[in-house]
Amino acid sequence: MTPACTSASFCLTINDMTGPPPVFLDACVLVNFSLCDTLLRLAEPPRLYEPRWSREVMAETTRALEAKLNWPRGLVAHFEAELRAHFADAWVDGHDHLIDSVGNEPKDRHVLAAAVHSSTPVIVTFDLRHFREEHLLPWGITAVHPDRFLVSLHTQEPELVREKVQQQAEDRNRSLAQLTEILRTTVPEFARVISPLRT
Question: Which domains, ranges and CATH numbers included, belong to the chain?
């Protein structure tokens, strides 16, 4: 039996008989490498959700990695190629006709349009102010901070989430405590609940 969610008013049901739920990841969460790594590991088999993004989101992500974080162009290209190889079903296209129909922040309308087009009910983003409830409700979509999203996944599947994050730490030659300290800067509540030092 899946435990009840306690993450404020947000709860993503991940044990539905139809399979893992689709979730749209905004560029602002993909560009943070440690957070992105955590999110994508939770979308690998056994999957807790099905990730979605669009060509515009990926273009924003790769531009930021190169221009703001000084990733070499070759590394950026490798990152995108790995996403295409491992998450071929994540790419959303054909949503341009909806961009003028959604009413959220103009520069992020492509995100909401892609979520609507792909029937994805959740957008994970730091920029919640660009996805106000009055713009999302008509489309049956919720925007949630990555911290609340990850806590919701952990609430429902704590052992699997901890196993995947522990593997992430090992793959990066870090202890779980070191990784949670890094994650604390962006997803502090999630870092707290998975921390080996939690009391």
Answer: 22-194 (3.40.50.1010)
